[in-house]
């Protein structure tokens, strides 16, 4: 009797399935039992082939070779994964394998990962689908008892291939035509370009903003019950005429008044939802200043290497009911791992299951929210980043099983000489879930107001006017950009597409961090602390896209339109052929428009000088892979590569190095021995680039300077 080969998307899932099925031997690259082999992908192993894989002439980026529109898309292994695909291929072709089970993640992308592997190997063996939305033992057993025929997922696979192929058509042709036309590397794509457009739109709002002065009037009142502060209001809480503000100040100064409205009520504040990846990245950015990528890397480590959290690349903030036992285990584990004061009461599973803000099967599809697995946490063995991310996840997990926080809110409306002043206070009465975050009863968000009943006589003890001005909208941080990407439907006018994009947005939780990093890598964005700032190159690209115009590239609307049709394909109401033909037609239109666009100085604006060459004094400009002297053809050797020991050097860092001789401290360099380190880049004699460690002003014993070559070998 032959065996069944199970292919999962990641090794951790393979091990979880093996535990449930039982009696497996670890063969290092796969697991084996009497009936099964289990092996794994590591995400995507196979990708669509590059243009030059179709014809060698496509290796050159020329306008007359565009657009590139394959009749049939070819597949190729991702280079770093060639060994793994060979292992899977050998198992598929093994004589004792009679059937295959697709155990990749339940969803469109998981289906694509398996289908590309299956098609690349050329297998004709029958396969079934294991559809897992939870990794608990009962859920795995239930899914094995309800294996789906492979053909049942054919429409999902068609939609997945359409998404992949259409991204290839737009990305490859768009990037090549813009780059070839304007002679500077201009990367474009369905997701990254609209994301950049969101940032550029905000930057233009900031640049065009003109502050408007306004005045606010405050007063201090005394009453038999105590003193309190109030703010003038008349529809708005400000005036735009200084003279009017001063007149109100003089009018009420020292006058008597009375309380005309008083309210004292208690309000309930529900616990937050559990984390999905995007919300975890937002909080880590707000609290710790972590980039989305840094948070994802830490979460992935806690999931794969430490087994401390569930699958992190999720877009759900809910749990399925069958996870209640795992939740109980997690609660009991945290009692022994530093959260004993917060877990003194036994976990009430019956009560927890009634909370639809936590347990809701209808809100869980591919994966559930991120929670602790129940494995013991050895905090001392975790790195600093991992400790911070784990602490966030543990506290959020605990908080959702606490009651609502209860606030006492008071509001007083005071009238003096027919002028009204509003006073508000908010005090925490019962901390509820906020206790998890260190809040206690009596915590105040503002000074608590006295009990001043309606009709209470008051005296105006003091009045003052504060001059202020309106502020430009803030630049995006990674936290606010992640929110904008998730809620990109608000940038779309079509209401139907808005609804569709509520479920998707721009990118996915798993890809948004990479999109932000890609925009930085290609020089469209620069990161300054928590803030993301579009570069001149990024701004000019969006100006260019809008002026051609190829608005489809800069608007989230294209993603909404695609998603609508991909959903129809999954339902059998739209064909793959129709979809790809539409994308090919759109690609041809975009390529034709870009070819016809004259260069009205856009390239010069995008490629402004980074500084003066430290060797010959000529301008240094940015190209595809470096910041280099424009006299390189004449023999000037000055080049600052954009990638140094695995770290991307931004335009602003390059400018600082060339103009000031050194950068600020840069983190993330990686030596040949795999050690990460941080240092300043410095200009050395002859235009060479070196590293400087510790303070550049106060020389210490352990200060050191080394060349790139010396440091990379350590």
Explained architecture:
The protein is of the alpha+beta class. It has 5 domains: 3-146, Rossmann fold (3-Layer(aba) Sandwich); 163-208 and 474-602, Topoisomerase I, domain 2; 213-271 and 405-469, Topoisomerase I, domain 3, CATH 2.70.20; 277-399, Topoisomerase I, domain 4 (Orthogonal Bundle); 609-712, no CATH class. β16 (525-528) and β17 (531-534) form a beta hairpin. It has 22 helices and 27 strands. Helices cover 36% and strands 21% of the residues. It is globular and about 95 Å long. Strands 2-3-4-1-7-8-9 form a 7-stranded mixed sheet. Strands 10-11-14-13-12-15 form a 6-stranded antiparallel barrel. A 4-stranded antiparallel sheet has the order 18-19-20-21. α6 (154-182) packs parallel to α19 (576-596). Residues 700-714 have a biased composition (Basic and acidic residues).
Distinctive features:
714 residues, alpha+beta, Rossmann fold, Topoisomerase I, domain 2, 5 domains, 6-stranded antiparallel barrel, 22 helices, 27 strands, globular
Short description:
Residues 3-136 form the Toprim domain. The protein is α+β, with helices and mostly antiparallel strands. 36% of the residues lie in helices and 21% in strands.
What is the end-to-end distance?
54 Å
Which second-level CATH architecture of the largest domain applies? Orthogonal Bundle
Q: Describe the largest sheet.
A: 7 strands, mixed
User: Averaged pLDDT, please?
Assistant: 90
Relative helix content: 25-40%
Question: Which percent band covers the strand fraction?
Answer: 15-25%
Q: Strand order of the main beta sheet, please?
A: 2-3-4-1-7-8-9
Number of strands: 27
| Count of helical stretches | 22
CATH fold description of the largest domain: Topoisomerase I, domain 2
The gross shape turns out to be globular
SS-derived structural category: alpha+beta
- Overall domain count: 5
The rounded Rg comes to 30 Å
Biased composition (Basic and acidic residues): 700-714
GO molecular function, one term: metal ion binding
Domain Topo IA-type catalytic: 153-591
Keywords: DNA-binding, Isomerase, Magnesium, Metal-binding, Topoisomerase
């Amino acid at each position: 009797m032959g065996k069944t080969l199970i292919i999962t998307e990641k090794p951790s899932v393979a091990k979880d399935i093996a535990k449930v099925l039982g009696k497996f031997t670890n063969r290092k690259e796969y697991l084996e039992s009497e009936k099964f082999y289990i092996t794994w992908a590591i995400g995507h192993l196979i990708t669509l082939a590059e243009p030059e894989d179709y014809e060698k002439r496509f290796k050159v980026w020329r306008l007359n070779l565009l657009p590139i529109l394959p009749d049939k898309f070819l597949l190729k292994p991702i280079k770093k994964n060639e060994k793994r695909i060979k292992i899977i291929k050998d198992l598929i072709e093994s004589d004792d394998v009679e059937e295959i089970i697709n155990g990749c993640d339940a969803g469109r992308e998981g289906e694509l990962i398996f289908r590309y592997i299956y098609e690349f190997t050329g297998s004709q063996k029958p396969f079934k689908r294991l559809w897992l939305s939870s990794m608990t033992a009962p859920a795995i057993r239930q899914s094995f008892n309800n294996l789906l025929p492979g053909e049942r997922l054919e429409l999902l696979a068609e939609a997945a291939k359409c998404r992949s192929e259409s991204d290839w058509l737009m990305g490859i042709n768009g990037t090549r035509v813009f780059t070839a036309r304007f002679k500077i590397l201009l990367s474009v794509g369905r997701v990254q370009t609209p994301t950049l457009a969101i940032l550029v739109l905000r930057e233009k709002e900031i640049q065009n903003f003109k502050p408007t002065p306004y005045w606010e009037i405050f007063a201090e009142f005394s009453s038999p019950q105590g003193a309190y502060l109030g703010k003038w209001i008349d529809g708005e809480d400000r005036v735009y005429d200084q003279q009017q503000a001063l007149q109100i100040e003089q009018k009420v100064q020292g006058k008597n008044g009375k309380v005309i409205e008083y309210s004292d009520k208690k309000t309930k504040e529900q616990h937050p939802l559990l984390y999905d990846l995007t919300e975890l990245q937002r909080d880590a950015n707000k609290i710790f200043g972590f980039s989305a990528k840094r948070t994802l890397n830490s979460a992935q480590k806690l999931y794969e290497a430490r087994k401390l959290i569930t699958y992190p690349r999720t877009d759900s903030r809910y749990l399925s009911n069958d996870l209640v036992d795992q939740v109980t285990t997690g609660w009991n584990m945290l009692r022994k791992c530093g959260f004993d004061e917060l877990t003194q009461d036994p976990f009430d599973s019956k009560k927890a299951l009634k909370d639809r803000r936590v347990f809701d099967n209808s809100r869980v599809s591919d994966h559930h929210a991120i929670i602790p697995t129940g494995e013991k946490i050895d905090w001392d063995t975790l790195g600093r980043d991992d400790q911070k991310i784990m602490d966030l996840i543990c506290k959020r997990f605990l908080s959702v099983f606490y009651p609502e926080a209860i606030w006492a809110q008071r509001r007083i409306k005071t009238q003096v000489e027919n002028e009204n002043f509003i006073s508000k206070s908010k005090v925490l009465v019962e901390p509820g879930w906020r206790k998890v975050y260190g809040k206690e009863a009596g915590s105040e968000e503002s000074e608590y107001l006295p009990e001043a009943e309606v009709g209470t006589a008051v005296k105006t003890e003091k009045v003052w006017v504060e001059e202020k001005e309106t502020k430009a909208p803030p630049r995006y941080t990674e936290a606010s950009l992640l929110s904008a990407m998730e809620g990109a439907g608000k940038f779309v006018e079509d209401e139907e597409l808005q609804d569709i994009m509520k479920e998707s947005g721009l990118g996915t939780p798993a890809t948004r961090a990479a999109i932000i990093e890609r925009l930085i890598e290609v020089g469209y964005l620069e990161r300054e602390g928590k803030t993301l700032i579009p570069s001149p190159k990024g701004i000019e690209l969006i100006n260019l896209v809008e002026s051609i115009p190829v608005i489809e590239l800069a608007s989230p609307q294209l993603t909404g339109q695609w998603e609508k049709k991909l959903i129809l394909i999954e339902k059998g109401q739209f064909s793959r052929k129709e979809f790809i033909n539409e994308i090919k037609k759109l690609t041809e239109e975009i390529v034709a428009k870009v070819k016809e666009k004259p260069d009205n100085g856009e390239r010069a604006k995008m490629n402004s000088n980074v500084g003066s060459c430290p060797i010959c004094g000529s301008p240094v400009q940015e190209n595809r892979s470096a910041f280099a002297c424009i006299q390189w053809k004449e023999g000037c050797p000055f080049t600052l590569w954009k990638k140094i020991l695995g770290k991307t050097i931004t335009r602003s860092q390059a400018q600082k190095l060339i103009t000031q001789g050194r950068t600020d401290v840069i983190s993330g360099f990686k030596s040949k021995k795999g050690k990460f380190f941080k240092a300043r880049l410095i200009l050395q004699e002859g235009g060479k680039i070196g590293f400087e460690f510790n303070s550049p002003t106060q020389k210490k014993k352990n200060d050191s300077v080394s060349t790139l070559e010396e440091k990379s070998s350590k």
